[in-house]
Input
Amino acid sequence: MGFRGLSRGDLLVLVALLATAGTVDAAYLTGEWYAAAGASFCDVGSYFSCSRVRESPFSAVGGVPTALIGVIGFGLILAVSTSLFLGRSRIGRMDLNRGLAVLAGIGAVIGLGLSLIEVFVIQAVCLLCAAGFALDLGILGLALAIQRQAATEPQLGGS
Amino acid sequence: MKKCPVCGVSVKVENLEKHVRNQHPRAEIDASELLTETERELVDEAAVTRTAARPSLTKRGKLVIGIAAILLVVVLAVIIVNPFRAGLRPGQVAPDFSVVATDGSGVSLQGLRGKPVLLEFMDVDCPHCVNEAPVLVSLHSSYSTTVNFLSLDVNFIQPDDSVGKIDAFARNYRTNWTYALVDADLVSLYAITATPTIYILNASGVIVQVYTGETSFGTLSSALEQALRG
Output
């Protein structure tokens, strides 16, 4: 991966930046999902249509919008990357470097699944959902690079 | 870990002073005597080490972060706000078109000039168009002599609409004006993404207002009055 010349701090800030963007993106989609309950029109949009995706049964799990799960996921990644940047490498027994990579991996898998559902089942693509998936992949790449760096550098301080 | 001299609970050395201060505010204990000199040095060293463990940013990294931040803001803003959204807006002349009405007659938008037009893009299978029908019926009863009404079925929701299905809709909801079944080209020309979408045109064919979704009688009536004034 092309992260030469970037320090661990740079990578962590980039993760936090992408996670913040992901949180904003998912929060906007969550708001739109709840607002759509009062929609007064039928969507007849094109292939790129967030409202068609939103109106599908795959936009919620047990009444909870999947976008809200995205808010929580991106929020956790933001919290972990911030903790790492502040020098904390563990919480209890949990290694935060590995935790970051695991969270990013879970996000990427969920994002991939939802993207495939959009393309092949709903047959409509929401650009904001696609942006969220792209952010997932970016975070995953950065998290793996951070973990590789952590594995080759001595641990300093933290608790 | 060290035991609190007041309650006997084991507390981390670096938290002992804070523990005594918060949990035993009335205990007459000199906080400076809680830790030995060696313990105090270790606590201070650990604090310095924790701070030193914070990763630093490189010059290149700051540049990359700055560029990434700007790109993210711009991309998200464009997707959410979508300033390049296609669609006709008030003040523009509505594009002309010709369709075949359900009664077999030809209708062109240009042919309706001379009076304002209420142009509705709808779908007989759209429940919101069904809800809107009584509103339009009320409007028609008030404005039928001064305004032309034209409803175009975009045939999207269940793409099996036909002249018979549209006639049945008109009979059910008593919408006694001209209907036509249209194709994707006209839908694309007017950038229709939702039904009902209602265009209010003045007598010269200029768009006065555009409404998406169910719209109240009052709102549409005001727009028609505005169109009638020119």
